[in-house]
Amino acid sequence: MNAPEFAQPMTADPTPSAFQARLAAAAARIETELQRRIDAEVRPGETARPERLVAAMRHATLDGGKRLRPFLVIESAAALGAVTEGAAGAGILSAAAAIELVHCYSLVHDDLPAMDDDDLRRGRPTTHRAFDEATAILAGDALLTYAFDILADTGAIGDAATRLALVAGLARAAGLGGMVGGQVFDLTAEGRYAADGRPLHLSAAEIRRLQAMKTGALLTFCCEAGAILAGTSRAERDMMRRFGRLIGEAFQMADDLIDVESLPEAAGKATGKDAARGKATLWASLGTAGMRAELDRLTAAAEATLAPLGASAATLVETARFIARRRF
Amino acid sequence: MNAPEFAQPMTADPTPSAFQARLAAAAARIETELQRRIDAEVRPGETARPERLVAAMRHATLDGGKRLRPFLVIESAAALGAVTEGAAGAGILSAAAAIELVHCYSLVHDDLPAMDDDDLRRGRPTTHRAFDEATAILAGDALLTYAFDILADTGAIGDAATRLALVAGLARAAGLGGMVGGQVFDLTAEGRYAADGRPLHLSAAEIRRLQAMKTGALLTFCCEAGAILAGTSRAERDMMRRFGRLIGEAFQMADDLIDVESLPEAAGKATGKDAARGKATLWASLGTAGMRAELDRLTAAAEATLAPLGASAATLVETARFIARRRF
User: Fold this and answer.
1) What is the 3-state secondary structure (H, E, C) of B63-119?
2) Right CATH number for A16-325 from 1.10.600.10, 3.50.50.60, 3.40.50.300, 3.40.50.450?
3) ipTM for this model
4) The pTM is what?
C-alpha cells in the first residue's frame, strides 16, 4: 500500500475510482438478489410468510452497507477464474447473498438491548427499535436459517458437493467456534472489574482471538467460499483462507479506529462506545499510530499471499487496501 | 386408538410398555450423541469454544424431554427399512440429534423475556434465567447454526445428496415460512384487542395455520427426514410428510389440553398461561371434548396413512397414539 493513497481516504475522492465503481455495482446486484429472496412467494415446504416478519427481515437487510462480504465472495471466485457476471454467475450471486444474510442477522442480534443495546445502525433505527425486541430476535433467526435454505436450494448453486461445502463452511464460521463464540468472548470481557475496581483488560492475544472469531471468521469464509464456488484445489482454498484472515484482522482494526476517531454522523452509528464500555480493542495497547502501522503490515501480507495469482488478484488487493483505509 | 388406552394415560401405567422402553432407549442414545457434539474438541475451522457458551448450550439441550423429534426421525427411517442401531445407524443418530438442537434453540428463544417470558422449562430454570439474556440469545443462535454444521459434516451422514436434502428441508421447516414464521403469527395474535376492548380472536383456520407452522413444520420434517435418511422414493417421502402433519396437529392439540388441564408440577412448566395471555388455541372453539374427538380423528388418519407399510409402521403408529394421549 503506498503512502499517498493511505493519507487520502477514498471517501474524499472527487470522482469514484474503478474499484469503487466495481464495489458499488456488486452492491447493487446483491441488493436486488437479497430483495428477490426476501420477497419471494411462499415456496414448497413453506406454509405462509408473516408480513411483519418479512418487513423486519427487509429492514435488517436491505439498503444497507457496502456489502463487503458478498463482494469478497464474488471477487474471490473471479480471481480464481469463475464467471461471476450474468446468468452464469447467478449461483455465485445467490451464495454471496446468503452469506450477507448471516452478517445481517448477526447485526440484528448484536444490537439487541441484552447485547450492545444500539438504537442506530447505518444511520437508521435498529430492527428492535423499528419493530420490537421479539420480532428482531425472530427476524435474526429467520435470516440465519434462510441463508442455509438458499445455499442448499436445489439447482441454485453449483453441484451438491459445492453447496454442501458452503453450508459446512458457513456453519463452522458463524457458529460457536467462530462468530457467535467471538460475541460471547466479547460480552464476557466487557465490564469486568478486578477486586480493587480497576477494569480487567484482556491481553492483546485474547483480543486478537476474540476478533478473529467475532468478525474474522465470516470474512475469512467469504474468501474461502469464492474458492469453493470456483471449484479450485485445496491449495487455492487455503490461500484464500490466509488472505481472508489477514483482511479480517485489518477490518476489525480499522473498525476500532473508526470508533475512536469518527463522529457518529459519519459512521452512521454510535461511536466512542468501545471506550465508554471498556470494550476490548487493541487501541489501548497499540495506539492510533501503532494500529496504522499494523494495518500497513496486514495489507502488505494480504497482497503477498495472492502473489501467485498475479493480475487476477488485482481487485482483491484493492479490496485489502480499501479495508485498511476505510473511515466509515 | 382404542378407548381404554385413551382413558388410561401412559404415565399411570404400573410397568412401562415396550413402546415406552423403546422411547427411553432412543432418548438415552440421543442424550449421549448431543453431549458428544456439544462437548467436542475445537475442530478445523473453529478457533475456540467459549466455556460459558458451551455451558449454556448444555443447559438448553441436555437432560431434557422425551426427545420425541429425534425419535420420530429414527423410527421413520426404521419403518422404511433403514438400519438405525449400532455403527450403521450412527449417521441417522447424528441427523436426529441435529434436528433436536433446532428444537432446543427454539425453546431457548421462545422463553426469552421479549417472547413468552418463561422462568421454567422441564422443571428447571430457562436458559436466560440460569445464565443471562445475551448468553441465551447467543446459545440459541449457536445451537441452530450447529445443527447445520452437523448435517453438513463430511462423512457423518449418508452421501452429499442426502446431507443436502436434510439441510434444505430443515431450513425450510425451521425458517420464515415454518417454525419462526409460526412464532411471529403467535406473537402478533397474542394480546390484540378490538376498539371496544374485546380480545381479538383468530379464526380456527388461522389458529391451525399458526400451529402447523410453529410446531407442525418441524415435526413433519422429522418424519420426512427419516425417509430422506432411508433413501426411499419421493412417494414414501410424501407419505411420511402426511403422517408428520397429522401427528404434528395432534401434538399441538394435546399440548393445548395440557395447558388447560394440568398442574404446573406435572407439566414441568407454567400452565394455564395460554388463557391468561389470550393466546390462540382451538380450545375456545372446540372445548375439551371436541379436542379429544379431534385427537381421535387425527390419530386414526395418521395410522391409515402408514397402512401401506404394514407391521413396519407399528412403532410410528404407537407414537401417534402416545402423542394424542400424553398428559405431560
Assistant:
1) CCCCCHHHHHHHHHHHHCCCCCCCHHHHHHHHHHHHHHHHHHHHHHHHCCCCCCCCC
2) 1.10.600.10
3) 0.92
4) 0.92
